Amino acid sequence: MKHLILLYIFIAGSLPAMAQETIYPAGKQQETVVLTNATIHVGNGQVIEKGVLTFTNGKITAVGTTAPAQAAGKVIDLQGKHVYPGIIAPVTNLGLTEVESVRATNDFKEVGEIDPSVRALVAYNTDSKVINTIRANGILLAQVTPEGGIISGSSSVVQLDAWNWEDAAYLKDGALHFYMPSLLPPPAPPKDRPASPNNKIKDATEKIDQVRAFFREAKVYLAQGRHAETNLKFEAVRRLFSKDEKLFVHCDIVKEMLVAVDFAKEFGFDVVIVGGTDAWRIAAMLKQANIAVVLKQPHSLPLMQDDDVDQPYKLAYQLQQAGVLFCLSNEGFWQQRNLPFEAGTASAYGLSKEEALSAVTINAAKILGIDKVTGTLETGKDANITISTGDIMDMRSSVITQAFIQGREISLDNKHKQLYERYKFKYGLK
């Protein structure tokens, strides 16, 4: 038995890829890295053929067709490969939930209707096994977002290669989230069934008025110098009024978006609409009000029965034509891995390839307030870089071979790949 136990220990040690616990964050970048002979997609619409990108100490130092004279370090020849900015996933509960059907693994929702003091960042689980499956498709940053109630709390942007939430924090508490109650009328009952009294719209309107009253009271409270007692909820929205934080309003139909526009006008908030299914109907108004849109779940059916069946697919192009700043998001957490392919779908419905890439890189960075440090492959920005054998937005050709977060080359291994190798071995398919 003793020898058998030692054999098990030896086998476990010789197959480290069988446990995700062997996947750990990369150390700080130690030497300059020069990527050569690559097709570089800068993220702002520019494409550099046979380009050279240099980064050191986590920052991009040069991008062009020739390497700087002083560049010396690790040279990686990427002949035939493509280099992209790391993709950014806005509005996701990644790291806040692990198994949807197991309540103990869900930490994205608090009790109560108005909870502006809740911070999603402190609940972010860097050990989630889902995170590594997302990184393998080029998503390197995410905005972890709380849910529940009407005002659910603040979201933060994290980088997806960290030991704990403190290491992961990329932008702390950048947005407060308002989940607007639906103002969509209920469907009409069948003719042979009497209409039942339905106060859904009335209840939704009352809740919206409750939120408006809360912000009015907070504005008065914050205008006062001193207080006998501290109101934590009012203090939690102070950064909204100073415009250090944005208000992300989750809504879809025109009536709801008009309420969001009114909030922006009355309180002077920087408002972002999340969802915006009907944003094409009031695109000119959104442009005039300088309100950005996070298009959520682009792969879906139309909201209204009389909409074009491909309306969700062409919405990105319609907003692009109207000059509205927008980006793409996805529902849930593990689904974020499909984000680059949804950008590819948008390119098939009107956007150019580079415009579609911007929708998941620099546009997202602008909306989240991190465009000065990431979103494009430009000198001075963080070296958040993805390398692919083909078009990153085409699932047929995209194979991510390397990725860097702030200059650190991260592991692309994950539980899915490990199970794939495990059962290849079991059935002798190697």
From TrEMBL:
Keyword set, alphabetical order: Signal
InterPro entries with a match to the protein in the record: Amidohydro-rel, Metal-dep_hydrolase_composite, Metal_Hydrolase, Metallo-dep_Hydrolase, Rhodanese-like_dom
Keyword Signal: yes
Signal peptide: 1-19
GO molecular function: hydrolase activity, acting on carbon-nitrogen (but not peptide) bonds
Domain of life of the source: Bacteria
Listed name of the protein: Amidohydrolase family protein
Residues of the Rhodanese domain: 234-289
PROSITE patterns cross-referenced by the UniProt entry: RHODANESE_3 (PS50206)
Species this protein is from: Chitinophaga sancti
